[in-house]
Amino acid sequence: MFTRKIYTLYFILLTLYLCGCATVATRGGLPGYSINGVDYLSLVSLCDAKGINWEYDLITRNILMSKDKHRINLRLGEKMVLVDGVAQYLKHPVDIYEGTVVVPLNFKGQILDSLFKEYIPLKKITMPTVLIKKVVIDAGHGGNDPGAIGRTGSREKHVNLDIAKRLGTLLKQEGIQVIMTRSTDSFIPLERRVNIANDAQADLFVSVHSNASRVKSLTGFEVYYPAFDIDDSRRALYAAEHAKLNLGDSFYSTPTLNLKATLWDIIYNYDRAESIRLGRLICNVVQRDLNCKILGVKGARFQVLKGARVPAVLVEVGFLSNSGEENFLKNSYYRQKIAQGIKDAILDYARDY
Question: Is the pTM of this model over 0.70?
Answer without folding.
Answer: no
